[in-house]
Design goal:
CATH topology: de novo design (two linked rop proteins)
Order of helices and strands: HHHHHH
Radius of gyration: 17 Å
Number of strands: 0
Structural class: mainly alpha
Distance between the termini: 6 Å
Length: 133
Amino acid sequence: MALFTELNIYKTAHELSVLCNRYVATMDRNYRGTIGADMRRDCREIIQRIQIANGRFGNERIAHIEELRWAVGQVEVAARICADRRIRALTPRQQADVILLTQSIGKQSTGWKQQTEKALANPVAKAAGSMRN
């Protein structure tokens, strides 16, 4: 098992967190404390779920990956709301930056979940894989 800070999904999530914090800091005060705070909280949640899932195995890991994917969806929805033409808390470019990172995290988490499910279905491969680590 690798340190969670060395995982590509963590690096992408960290980049998303830094980006969201930078964008929230430039938001109008009306949105910074509401939807901006939600975005920051969900970014922290994503990183925490990666850390927890990395330390778990089997169905417990899958549950944390599902929670991670839910938090990713929350950040994506918040970015879409912020970029709405009536709100304009984010520019279309900023929204695109956030969406690209959330999609990347989503793809990586799907692969991680599938890999875990595959290991659960084939316990012999799981045992062989644990010997290598």
